[in-house]
Write a structure and sequence with these properties.
Layout lengths: L1 H20 L20 E11 L5 E9 L11 H4 L7 E2 H4 L3 H5 L1 H4 L6 E2 L1 H8 L1
Antiparallel strand pairs: 1-2, 3-4
Protein name: EF-hand domain-containing protein
Keywords: Signal
Organism: Luteimonas terrae
Amino acid sequence: MFRSVRAIALCALAAVAVPAAAQVTTAPLQQVDDAPALSSQAGRQTGVVTYDREDGQQVIIRSYEPRSARSEAYRVDFAALDVDGDGFVSRAEAKAHPTLDAEFNAIDSNRDGRLSREELAGWLR
């Protein structure tokens, strides 16, 4: 019986010792003075948020305005789309332009069911 108790105690000590020997130490990251390069898709910075972690480290999150779209999908001939000449592009008139049709609700900021030149100018910036 003494041998079995001693064997169990040795196994228990071995189980505790192995994880302690397997621990890994880490070193803090090197501080970098240069700001990260801007992505080719980023424009001017629009916001920054800094979070302080419990370990004293900081997490910084920046947001950037996207660069203007230079695609044919975002070129609009207002006069050609305004078929009835009322000075607005209706939902039906926007169907002639697939991208404008798909983004109509996002562009129609006053939710009147038609797009003014001002609303389109904000979309095309």
